[in-house]
Write a structure and sequence with these properties.
By secondary structure, the protein is mainly α. The chain has helices spanning about 5-35, 40-50, 55-65, 65-80, 100-125, 130-150, and strands at about 85-90, 95-100. It has a two-stranded antiparallel sheet with strand order 1-2.
Length: about 150
Amino acid sequence: MEKQTQDRYDMFIYLVSGIYKNIQRIRSGKASEDGIKTVNTMWLLQLRNEPEGLTASELAMKCLVDKSLISRELVPMEQNGLIRCDIKLEDSKFVRKIYLTEKGRELAGKYSDFAGRIQEEIRKAHSEEDITTFYKVLKTFFDKLDDAANEC
C-alpha cells in the first residue's frame, strides 16, 4: 500500500475511533442524567422512528446488537416506563412488538434534538453536497469493512 493511502487509512481509523468514543461518552452522560443505561439511548431513538413498533429481532438488527441483549433489557425498560410491549397477531403468528411510551418518546426527542444541534453545526461548516458525498463514502467504507469482517 502506498504511503498516502496508508496515511489516509490511518487517519480514517483514528477519526472513526474518536467519533465512536465521543458518541459513547455523550450517550453515557445523557443516559446517566436520565437514569437509564447507555445502550437504551440508541434503542429509544430507533423506536421513535417506528410508530408500528418493532420486534426484538428487528430492533437488534437495526441497532447492530445481539437479540439476547434486547430481550434482557425489555423488562427494565418497561419497568422504567420507557417502552410497552404488546402481543399482536401477524400472518397467523403471535408477535411481541415494542413501542415507546410517552416518557420514552420524550427522552428520544431529547436525544434527537441534541444530535440535531450537532448536525446543524456541521451544516454551517460544510455544504449539503459535501455532507452527501461524505455519507456516500462513509457508507462504502462501512460496506467494504462489513464484507471483510464477514470473511473472517
